[in-house]
Amino acid sequence: MPEWVAAVKEEDLKEEKIKVVNAGNRQIALIKKSNEIFAIDNECPHEGCPLKSGSLEEYTLKCACHNWGFDIRTGENVDTGEYIDMDDPKVETYETKIENGIIEILV
């Protein structure tokens, strides 16, 4: 059953920076973009590379290992580059909310 887990103070998450938190036995990358908070698994489904090491381009988080791109709003793969060896690779995303200045994640 999903539950809300306190992750980090809102003031500790800077615009367009990636902050990894542990929530519900998962490593989740939090990203603030245009004053919205997005939460996405910190692991690329291709070879398990940490997405935090990648780069954010608009709403696409690019994996540093093989340049796969994932939409931080949906988790959908938007650019597999040359490495298309999986059917519909996707990264799990999570709902977020802010309660009393604390970002919470539904996991």
The total number of structural domains is: 1
Under the CATH scheme, which class?
A: Mainly Beta
Tally of DSSP helical segments: 0
Mind telling me which CATH architecture this is?
A: 3-layer Sandwich
SSE order, as H and E? EEEEEEEEEEE
Terminal-residue CA separation = 8 Å
The structural class is: mainly beta
Number of strands: 11
Strand order of the largest sheet: 2-3-4-9
How much helicity do the residues have? under 10%
CATH fold annotation? Rieske Iron-sulfur Protein
Q: Give the amount of beta strand, in percent.
A: over 45%
Oligomer: single chain
Mean pLDDT metric: 91
Query: Major sheet, described briefly?
Result: 4 strands, antiparallel
CATH homologous superfamily heading: Rieske [2Fe-2S] iron-sulphur domain
Taking pLDDT < 50 over at least 5 consecutive residues as the criterion, the unreliable ranges are none
Q: What does the overall shape look like?
A: globular
Rg is 13 Å
List keywords for this structure.
single chain; 107 residues; mainly beta; Rieske Iron-sulfur Protein; four-stranded antiparallel sheet; 11 strands; 0% helix; dioxygenase; dioxygenase activity; 2 iron, 2 sulfur cluster binding
Question: Can you walk through the features of this model?
Answer:
- This protein has 107 residues and is mostly beta strands.
- It has a single domain, classed as Rieske Iron-sulfur Protein (3-layer Sandwich).
- It is 0% helix and 46% strand.
- It has no helices and eleven strands.
- The protein has strands spanning 4-9, 18-23, 26-33, 36-41, 55-57, 60-62, 69-71, 77-79, 93-94, 96-99, 102-106.
- The strands form three sheets. The chain has a four-stranded antiparallel β-sheet, with no helix packed on it. Strands 5-6-7-8 form a four-stranded antiparallel β-sheet, with no helix packed on it. The protein has a three-stranded antiparallel β-sheet with strand order 1-11-10, with no helix packed on it.
- A hairpin with a 6-residue loop joins strand 6 and strand 7 (69-71).
- The radius of gyration is 13 Å and the shape is globular.
- It starts with a strand and ends with a strand.
- Residues 5-105 form the Rieske domain.
- This is Ferredoxin subunit of nitrite reductase and ring-hydroxylating dioxygenase.
- InterPro entries: Rieske_2Fe-2S, Rieske_2Fe-2S_sf.
- Its cofactor is [2Fe-2S] cluster.
- GO terms for molecular function: 2 iron, 2 sulfur cluster binding; dioxygenase activity; metal ion binding.
